[in-house]
Amino acid sequence: MKSIRLTLPFMLCFLAASHAMEIPLDGRAQSTENGAAAAENFAYIDIERIFAEHPMTARFKEEFQRELDKRKAELQIMEDEIAAQQRIVVSTGTEITKARIQIELLKNMSLPAPAVTASTDTATSTLQPSSAPAVQNIVTPSTTPAQIPADIAALENELREKEAGLETIKQGITKKQEAVAQKIKQNKEELLSIEEKQTQKVLSDIYHLLDIIAKEERLSIIIDKNNVLYGQAGQDITEKVSERLQGR
Fold it and tell me: In the chain, how many domains are there?
């Protein structure tokens, strides 16, 4: 018999023995001349259809989907937190780069001005309009030679703090990513367990009814018609079983 699962697809592998409830063959079958069971003691069912139409299947699927959606939402919150921290990493990295450039510019400003010739002055004056705005975007216009050492010290201290903070954020992201991976693994295991328990409840109810019908109809054998390659004609009791399962 194929494996029946609560979630789609219903049939995946072979049904584990733990899912089956035995319907005993108690010797009530009448023998024919060749030893085969009489047709009136043999019946078959479409177990896939019966499982799909069982009222509990729909209820369990809805419960399972709600649980799945809840766990997805929890994971999404964790992933959103990671994404927010990653954006901070990018912005902090940009700030660190700017601070390093600013420190280098201030250090260069503190160096003695090199002697230049007239021709060099001309070249410098030619280049100054294009380079000056870039410097002004980083260096405070009020910076004076006397303030440069203090400004450099302050920037270097700020840079160290940002780098330390950035490393802390990165470590936090790594831990959150590990927590997400662990949560995904835990969810898979727990959801599989939930699905197996729900599936077992449905199958147990089906097998219990089959046992009752077998006694009522004096049936010796009930098999799944999807797994029969050849056999004598028997009665299809799928509809009867499905109808009696309604309302459960």
Answer: 1
Confidence check: pLDDT of 219 > 70? yes
Helix axes 148-216, 238-245, angle to 10 degrees: 120
Q: Does residue 62 belong to any structural domain of this protein?
A: yes
Give the per-residue SS3 of 81-106. HHHHHHHHHHHHHHHHHHHHHHHHHH
Does residue 175 sit within a domain? yes
Contact 61, 7 (CB under 8 A): yes
Q: What is the pTM of this model?
A: 0.65
Residue 182 has which token pair?
């662990």
Q: Distance (Å, rounded) from C-alpha 55 to C-alpha 238?
A: 15
3 state SS of 221? strand
Residue 220 has pLDDT above 70, yes or no: yes
State the chain's maximal CA–CA distance in angstroms: 126
**56 pLDDT higher than 80:** yes
Nearest Cα residue to 212 out of 184, 183, 187, 248? 248
- 103 vs 151: CA distance, rounded Å: 8
Q: Which domain holds residue 213?
A: 2-111+147-245
Residue 78 belongs to some domain of the structure: yes
Query: What CATH number is associated with residue 185?
Result: 3.30.910.20
Backbone angles phi, psi at 247, to 5 degrees: 90, 0
User: 194 vs 128, 145, 228, CA distance in Å?
Assistant: 72, 72, 31
Measured CA to CA, the distance from residue 210 to residue 41 in angstroms comes to 14
